[in-house]
Amino acid sequence: MAEQNTEAKLKTLLKQQKIQLWNPPYTEDNRPSPEHMQDLSEQYAPLLGLSVAEVGGALESIRAQAVNRGKGNQTFRETNVASLELLLPRDSKKDPKTKSFFQTKLDVCAQELVDRIREEYGLKSVKLILNGRTLNVEQRLDEQGVRNHSKMMVLRVSDSEWKQQQEQEQERQNNQNQSLQRTQKGFQILSERAEDLDSKPFLEIADQKGNPLNIPHQEKKALILAMGFHEKGRSLMKRRQFDDALCHLLQADQQFSKCGSTLLGSVDNFAVLQLDIVWCYRALEALSCLDDGRARLQRAEQSFLQCYGEQQQRLRMIKGSTGREEVLFLRLYLLQSLLAYIEGNDAQARQQLSKVEALYRRLSPDAEKMEQLMTLGFTEREARLGLRACEGDVQEAALHISNRRQERAEMKDRERQKRRSRLEAVSVLSELGFNRRDAARALQQSDGNVDQAYTILLNSRQAAEATNNNSPEAVSPEKVEQLLYLGFDRPHAETALTLTDGDVQAAAQLLLENQGELPPDLSQDSSGSSGSSGPGRQEPVPSSSTSSTSTSTGSSSTSSPEDEAAVSEVLGDISRHEEDYLDLTLEEESELIVTLQSYLSRSTQTV
After folding, report:
1. Final residue in a domain of this structure, among 78, 101, 126
2. 257: CB partners within 8 A, 6+ apart
3. What residue numbers bound the domain in which 450 lies?
4. Of 34, 226, 419, 509, which is most buried with the most CB atoms under 10 A?
């Protein structure tokens, strides 16, 4: 990072003085002019507090890069041959200080480039790394993001290791793709169940106090998918699988883009996601993502401002304190400090780092106080979050944690009562001859008012009868015959079709799950009911932030085993604690703070 810092500062000085090193008098016939380069080095060395030799080396590196880039651009325009910078193994370079460039077309398989590099540098087996990811030798370079002037790392591996890594890489990519597909499928199922009280588990979007948010259906589906991918990504980050985590986080970002700005401004999920993506960039040392990282941190800061208020007054009003959320600002300022340093802006890096250090001192858990709270029966997480919320006061923290426990218990009771009331209302409407799913949707439209829901259902039925007098009945002979052909008995087949509104596939699934014979309670309910009316047991499953999800245990009668497996997998990645995203131990942050302190102190000493 120190070399990047020096070059960034020099580029700023050169830009201010409108000096172009690739043009005369600094470059003549593509070669450096020693006299003029020396004069420039002597001029800049005192300004940076570095030796003339160090500045001279950095200036020559900048000049050579500019000259090579110019040549490469011209060549690429004329011949479509790209120039790549190779970061070779140390013992493969003739001059460790000289950068290695390689020319190739981009519409060729990576294997062709691998073979040429092996031959050129006498390497037996190698693999190529671009932006922290291994290139697939079977795919084209341009399909994997390789561009003119891309920087590529060349790693030497043994033959056996190479074959093993290729197999592992292919398996990893397959697993990664499958993981993305399973995550999307699981949360798509849950998003569809959000309005269907008979399907369990189901998800509900709520604010910090557990109050449901009234969100349009399509936007709710996108939000559930976004939060689902985010939760999966955060789960992978905890296991330090940052490559896979980044894939899921970027998928979450795509889903959030489908949500309205009003919604994103009222919850902090989106801001936290931006921080998590840039944190993955840092962990993967993906400095090529610098511009994207800067833009994401800006979006995160703006989102926090909109969600929490200018002085976090909105957050204080809702939650009563801001201590727990301050860890998010610690990570925000820390990442801003890192990017500022890499860009050569030491003053801004120090300014942000000073904020980080102050927050770190305040938010780092005191071991003795933690022990006192844990002795009282509180968990480590509760103790840490409680101390942060109460600025380190043990007695206040104990009271705060107890109050939070009571609030969560009351929230569970409200959720149980709400679901019980809704199910009872659905049962009332189903006894009047309406389908349970239609009844649930009508109740949602009427905000739980049974009389209004009845009117909605009645009007809908009359409209359907008026327009579909000639439509075939749900239990048509053809559909019954299809189920008889599959080996089911006629009475059970007719009942299953009635329960599923004539959906043959759903009816077959229902019969299979009940070994071909429907239980009496389902058979008696064939006039319009499609499930048990008893209330389910609910457990809160909060999302990463302000907007939360709730789930109840059980399974939908028409879900396939594959669907239930997908749902179970994604639910396993959702934290069981609504403030899990705030429970940072600050260990990784501490390591980065020490690293930045050492670089910035070194810069101060040389000035």
Report:
1. 78
2. none
3. 434-467
4. 226
